[in-house]
């Protein structure tokens, strides 16, 4: 039931504050993650983890990419990540103490499931899945299961599954990090930020009318470029995937620092550039990358922290977001990118919930 929404995707975008709350419910205390929520055998396994291998496809792959930044930065735990369709067809080397993690909304993605089955033949410590469908194949076949509580996701374009995956991966990073370099003080900070996440999501989702206005600049375009740095690079990748998937506009994503190495040649006045610009230690670097784009006539669309110093003018459209803790940036900045792709697709008149050539669950290779 779509309620008063026009599409399931739109409904699912607006559900995010609530379902993120559900994903956190009963899993965190005031200052700590409750690690028994990973299962009774989890503690023994987590004690032995030296490294993490993440496998997923599509949007779920993008949440895994963000987790790599978190695991290495906060926890000091090395993390590798690969798309399942590549991983399953090559010879891999498994380091001792590696936890094998799959991420999947459906729990039925053929390549991800094949990768898990293959991993069981290899020398992994154990397998864990972050999954949204109870009793799915991945949930049944993994040693440990952590359910995202996004509720059924009907739109083919994944939205609330992605943000609840990010929340779940943050909890995983914390329980693993505790056994490595993550202090109790840092954990308390991260958990406090998580408590504020649902209301921050509400606040950012209410920017929808501004995003709608911005979307009008895209409906006649054929190409677009999404830029981010650090953990916002996978967020840019996800923004580009959403746009191409439902509006059929060609969208590429790059880490902003790579522009000079090729993509800058694409930039002209017909190429909208979308940038994700929280106020963090990469902001100044990002700004100088964006100046290079502007010097080539590119029109900029920036989702920026209100204090990041971006101004609206003839060649820059800015949507200001509230300042949020750095640990929440990838989740928060994803929301307006989902809204942007949604509105562009509606303007273009595509079948938003059921885009051409795609299936919700990819159960064949
Ligand atoms: O069910 P899964 O999370 O395993 O699905 C993986 C991808 O097929 C999925 O995320 C796909 O990329 C989405 N349609 C993207 O919006």
From TrEMBL:
Residues 42-182, 214-355 form the SIS domain. Keywords: Aminotransferase, Cytoplasm, Glutamine amidotransferase, Repeat, Transferase. One of its GO terms (cellular component) is cytosol. Its EC number is 2.6.1.16. It catalyses: D-fructose 6-phosphate + L-glutamine = D-glucosamine 6-phosphate + L-glutamate. The active site is at 360 (for fru-6p isomerization activity). Its main location: cytoplasm. GO terms for biological process: amino sugar biosynthetic process; carbohydrate metabolic process; fructose 6-phosphate metabolic process; protein N-linked glycosylation; UDP-N-acetylglucosamine metabolic process. GO terms for molecular function: carbohydrate derivative binding; glutamine-fructose-6-phosphate transaminase (isomerizing) activity. It is found in: Cytoplasm. The keyword Signal does not apply. Homodimer. Catalyzes the first step in hexosamine metabolism, converting fructose-6P into glucosamine-6P using glutamine as a nitrogen source. This is Glutamine--fructose-6-phosphate aminotransferase [isomerizing]. It comes from Pseudoteredinibacter isoporae. The chain holds residues 245 to 609 of 609 of the full protein.
